[in-house]
Design goal:
6 copies of one chain form a homohexamer. By secondary structure, chain A is mainly alpha-helical. Helix content of chain A is 58%, strand content 0%. In chain A, helix 4 crosses helix 9 and helix 7 crosses helix 9. Chain A is globular.
Chain lengths: 198, 198, 198, 198, 198, 198
């Protein structure tokens, strides 16, 4: 595997990984054209890898009152508060793709308060940021703006659980010195070219 | 289930939970004499429950260069930095039981710098605390005291991953308003009475 | 005096202390069964010792609109904000004894916002914490919730003066490296056994 | 002028601006293809506009021991510490163009400690960040790593003065709610296409 | 020039400075009786000197809805938040002279919240301080108290721009280790003696 | 008593105060020419007044390895960190008088790092400031620079205890809204005029 140095820890050889993990990595490579470093770096701990992605998928892939773009917005905004290289850059690409707004991820990476978001999303990110950086002060009153903005209690769990999961993820990235793949930087920045009508 | 109000979210009825989750909860009840609220509160989201405890067990139950007491010390010290009611009180009980020092958890909950720990554990907790509260500043130089204290790179991953996992856990507890069961407060504080010789 | 190392400074010999200080220490030993380290550590400076305990008693022993349990709650919550080993652990014992709630001190040591307190006590602790950690921002508006909760101006002075006194106390404990006596950890945790009827 | 709403303050009509300011704006439009909003927003205060850009040019356009890319790196890294939407996004484009590294600006916007910079630039940014966010603690010892890395005293003045100037600029952007032009987001991200040989 | 060591950088010889800068310094000496060190220290960079003082004069000397005393109050209060030796002491003298209140500067240097200011000035300083120390959180709602207190949008620009300019100035002072001239300490503290009637 | 409003609490009538307190206030008035507000404000709580001034005198009036000027320097520098109006202004006067340096108090009020102090005093204030604002992190290593600078363990206790006492004092001032008497502002700023030789 010719992945460039992307971690403080040695990178496993793909062929030697457990079959389920290898298949997952090949599947993501098939879809994205490359293997994001989070898969590569975490694969050396198979049990933790499986739990990590099971948790990730349970939150990020399921049906939810939050759109997939909104879920990625939470990731980028809270990861920016932790200055997390990998999560801001990799999930910034997903924000661009899922929101179809090529400016939004860069804005969220700087300051979500001046990003091109709607009032509902602003309330969502205010809550997520408080949970991310000052969880001890989260109180019942913090749920009121969310409910007033139309979020259900299940939606709020999703907001909170995504924030919590990336609190974990940001720290794994800091621990390992995980770096974003070069491919992420440009993803979603250019208009998708429609194939010519045949 | 007569669990007292321990969460902002409604508590599921044990009998209606998926069988694997129900069995896990009954098993812990069998062993501990009660069901810790983290099981009760998270059980309403079965997929997330399974990933959470799979991750937990992968870090906390396996063989490691860190003793089980040391792993719980990381939990209490980093959770104290986040002022997390559930994690400090519940895992404080585990620190007492596993370290056999009835004072240690209370000390870690206040200030790990004046706790009854050895120099190796001090280095371990300095690293964990930096990752917990200031992960963006973690750099190569922070690994040197750990290596000098005899921790292997795998041990360091364990320290970091436990810290990361409880960054998640602290925020789930804040989100749900999770409360510690009354049973935790006294666990491990009294000398274990040996059964009389028969 | 067989006190274990409880301070960065040498511990005086009880027999050599000024008579008033020696008598005070013997009286507390008579009542509590041991001499709390704050007496031991501070006794080497008799003038300061006398002023310290005169101030302490003027605030903590007098009649007040605050119950003795509430006064100890202020001590534990503000000392927790300063991560003060001695004050949290020693006064945690007093919280348990005076509130007759064996869980309350541990809760206050972690996060007073999720402790088993009533709304009046919450207002009291919000004020105390602001004065303890951000006194420059205390303004007239901060007194309004206290007055609305039924505290008199004299009660508010008591809240503030107790907070101020333990700002001093926390720093003396940090200076001297004062450690909590082992006896404090278990005090007030077990139900008091009534003597058998004769 | 069809500039989109880019400020809390009304935008002047280009034709009504003083001639020197109008010429400067037309010149930048000629060169860049658009007028960056900092010109548009500040133009309503001609005296301040002239001083602002005179200062800017004195620091950013002159000969210096710092390359132009390095100067823009200081801008992005210190503006990121202030979460400044306009400065991070607009000067991020300049970092990309001047460093010819299409990833560098995004990395600096997240965390300069994990950006693709050399050790000399790391020292430069450590100094700039300390001056930007904690200037009261800057002391003689902070100059030593710069001198050891080969910076001259004049270079250090440049590092400090650029940091200081953008401390001003970040706050003007926050005051006015200045927004980055859409053009900046993609600038410098794509390889420059060489004109076909004729 | 017998200026005492007032900077980390060598002080230029007055006679060798560009004529416009030399004239400005002689003019201020004529008026004040001494040359404030900010002129002396910055004069070694003539282009930057000219831009700095052009900006300064555009904000501090012009007609404004803010009195000159109020403008200096912004300087002292925001510079105090940055612990800036030169700016607090030198502009403290100007606050005393322009407000004719010999106590006001010392009060602002400690805590503007307890200074002898009127409610309008309190609102002004709240805004200035937020912009000075937490500009990323400045939002539309922060303008409302200013408008309610009678400040026009132009006045608000002045408040913000003065704050921004001294964010620059504080950092130049920190960079150079600029020290306040001895003359500033007593200026404006004593009642002006009226000349005897002839 | 024609004291201007100097507290949130009503000011007692001097004639009605307990005799010992009244005598102390008259004595200070005799010596200073006015009664500092700290006496006036605290006198309504006689027991606390007596303990407060007994503690104060035990630290500030006794023989010590610290000069009286140095002790007042600790008061001003730590009170400045708490933005305490009364303590900085009133004890600033004492710094001027006792150090015979009319600039020193203003410098300490802004930033002790750039004040006219010697290296020994710098070490003293570094320790005092850490204890004042971050006491939980005070550790054995913090005592080493003090010992190396020639401070004895008793001197260090004095530094720490003065810091601790003014942590109390700053908070009492914040609680009561205590204001500095007008007389303090000019004290020690003018050269003492020698009486003419008779």
């Amino acid at each position: 595997m010719s992945i460039p140095p992307s971690s403080r820890y040695p990178i496993p050889v793909l062929a030697e990984l457990p079959e389920d993990i290898r298949q997952r990595m090949l599947a993501v490579q098939e879809k994205a054209g490359f293997i994001p470093n989070v898969f590569v770096v975490l694969s050396r701990r198979p049990e933790e890898f499986r739990a990590f992605f099971a948790y990730h998928d349970a939150l990020m892939e399921k049906e939810s009152g939050l759109s997939k773009a909104e879920r990625e917005m939470i990731v980028v905004a809270t990861s920016a508060a932790n200055d997390c290289h990998y999560c801001v850059i990799a999930h910034g690409a997903l924000v661009r793709i899922r929101s179809k707004n090529p400016r939004l991820a860069d804005q969220l990476a700087v300051n979500y308060r001046s990003a091109e978001i709607n009032p509902r999303q602003r309330v969502m990110l205010d809550f997520a940021l408080k949970l991310a950086v000052d969880s001890a002060r989260l109180e019942d009153a913090d749920f009121e703006p969310l409910l007033a903005a139309g979020f259900s209690w299940e939606d709020i769990w999703d907001i909170g659980a995504i924030t919590a999961f990336f609190a974990l993820s940001n720290r794994l990235a800091a621990l390992t010195g995980m770096r974003a793949n070069d491919e992420f930087y440009l993803m979603g920045r250019l208009p998708v070219q429609k194939p010519p009508a045949s």
